[in-house]
Design goal:
Radius of gyration: 20 Å
Number of helices: 6
CATH architecture of one domain: Orthogonal Bundle
Helix content: 25-40%
Number of strands: 10
Distance between the termini: 23 Å
CATH topology of one domain: Cytochrome p450
Structural class: alpha+beta
Shape: elongated
CATH class of one domain: Mainly Alpha
Order of helices and strands: HHEEEEHHHHEEEEEE
Length: 195
């Protein structure tokens, strides 16, 4: 993400972000480790029930049963993401053979749902996230005011709360477009929803 390779005032394009493997790896890993929701909308089996294939056997699910996939559990499968599946490590997405990459991406994409219930905005979400992350890193120098004070992740009813994160920090703006120089922000200490 060298700014010398990119015009300072021009906002990065979607195509340009796709040519940045580490940026894409960081985004994939962030969505995998901290999925926006951990349990997508459930489905209910028809009144007569339904049969599904689980491994090498057929399993009958009675009618009216709520069925859902735990993205929290599935994105931490060690047989797919490695023994360190609980750890944020973007490098796991770099230099993979095609079949491993496709398998990991299919499982990681379950955070957007599947089948008829799949999020219609998946592409737009990827575009926005890629462009926003690139521009934030390129335009701002951010640091926690109290890096020695740990943050705690809490899973609360399917959404992430991060306590201890809301604390004073400084944002240094490098672009004349905003003309605000250094701004110090102080937030109330307490839990805040994290995407």
């Amino acid at each position: 993400m060298n700014t010398s390779e990119h015009e300072e005032k021009k906002i990065v394009t979607w195509a340009e972000t796709l040519e940045m493997p580490y940026l894409q790896a960081v985004i994939r890993e962030g969505l995998r480790v901290f999925p926006p929701t951990v349990d997508p909308l459930p489905r209910i089996t028809p009144p007569e029930g339904d049969s599904v294939e689980v491994g090498d056997r057929n399993v009958f699910i009675p009618g009216g049963t709520r069925v859902l996939t735990s993205t929290w559990a599935i994105t931490r499968r060690t047989d797919i993401f490695g023994e360190d599946a609980d750890i944020f490590r973007p490098e796991r997405w770099i230099g993979l053979d095609t079949s491993t990459s496709v398998r990991m991406q299919k499982v990681a994409d379950l955070i957007f749902g599947f089948g008829k219930g799949r999020c219609l905005g998946i592409t737009i979400a990827r575009i926005i996230i890629s462009k926003a992350v690139f521009e934030l890193v390129r335009r701002y120098d951010m640091a926690l005011a109290k890096p020695w004070s740990p943050m705690n992740n809490v899973l609360n009813m399917g959404a992430w709360e991060r306590s201890g994160m809301m604390r004073p920090f400084e944002v240094c703006v490098f672009d004349d477009l905003y003309k605000i120089g250094i701004v110090s922000l102080a937030m109330k200490v307490g839990p805040r929803l994290v995407f």
